[in-house]
Please model this.
Amino acid sequence: MWSTVEEFRDWYMANGMPLRPPFKNPVFATDNAMSLCLYREGRFQVEMYVSEPYSTSPPHTHPGVESAFVYLAGNIQFNLEGRDNPDVQQWQVEAPDGTHSLLGKTVSSPDGIPHWLGIGPEGGAFLSFEYWKDKDPVSVTVNWNGDSVGAEHDKILNKGNKVNKIQEAYEDWAEEWKPPAKGQNHPTSWEGFEAGWMAAIEVMLERLELSKV
Amino acid sequence: MKNEFSPVMAFKDWWLANGHPIRPPFKSPIHCTDIAYALCLYRVGRFQVELYIVKPNTGSPLHSHPNIESVSMYLTGNISFSDAEGNYRDLTEFQVEGDQGTHKLLGAVAEENDGKMHALKVGPEGGAFLIFEYWKDRDPVSVTVHWEGELVGEQHAQTKGEYVVNS
Model:
C-alpha cells in the first residue's frame, strides 16, 4: 500500500491507470462539475472531474484529505493559497500528438491549504488523487469546507454530510448552552423550556433539510 | 447482431488491449448537457472513445447518431439503454456489487448501434459508461452534438447549437 498521495498517483499512472469504478458512491454532480471515481482502494482513490465551460469554484479545503491533481484537458486555472499560481493561458496550446500541452502535469494540494479553480471556454477535465487520512473515501465534492459552488452543491453537501450535520448541530447547541448562574432563574414554565428545545430541533431539521410531520 | 469484425468493435478491442490510453484531444474534448458530461478519452482519425458521466434520476428521449457506428461499455451506476422502440430490458438483477467492489456490469458491452434510435434511463445512483465511435462520414466531435431527435434540455440545445454554428 502507499504512504502518500504522490506515491499512489505515481503507482496509478505507472500501472496503466486502471479503470475500476466502485459500486458504492461512484458519481457526484454539482452545479458546474461532475465526478466519477475511477479507482478506490482503502483510504486512497482517484476521481475524474469534468467541469463546465466558464465555471469557477470559490476557495475551499477538503478536511483530512491530501490531494494531487493531474491535468487532462481543457482550460483549467488551478490556484493554491500561498503559492505563486502561474497563468496557464500561456500553455493553452496543442501538443504535437494532438493532446493538450499540459496533459499529465501535476500539482499537489496539501490538506488544509485552500485552493480554487477557474475554467475557461473549453471546459476542463482533471484527475484528483486523494488520500483520506481519517475516514473512508467518498468524494471531495461532499467533503468540502468553504462556500459551495451553488444550490445543487448545497443539496449534495447536506446529503453527504448528514451524519456530520447532526453532530455539528449537537455540538453547537452544547457549546452555546450554559448552566444558569447562581441566582439566575431557571425556566419557570414548560412553555419556556419547550420553546428553547423546539428552536434547537428546528436548527437540526433545517440542516438535514427535513420537515416536521 | 454483434459483429466482431466491424470497425468500431475492432477499435474497442484495440483500445482495451493496449491499456486503454487516456489521451484527451486538445480540440473539443468536453461536451455538457443538462443530464450528462462527456470527455473524449482518445481520438484517432474517424474513431474515438468518449466517457459519459450521467446525473442521477435522468434519461434521454429516443434519438439517433446518424452515420456513426457505436458500441457502449458499462462502467458503473444504474444505466439502461432502450431498443429502437423505447423498450428497456430490466437490469435490476444486475444492480449488485461485483468483484473487488466494482459494479457487476463493469465491462459489459451493449449491442452495437449503427445509427439506430435508442434512449437512456438512469437510476438514483447516476452512472458512467464509455462509447466507442466510428464516424463514417466526418471527423469526430461528440455524439452529444451529432444527435437527431428530441434533445434532453436547454443546455443540450446550446451545446448542439454551438457545434452547428462552428461546423
About this structure: The domain at 5-149 of chain A is CATH 2.60.120.10 (Jelly Rolls).
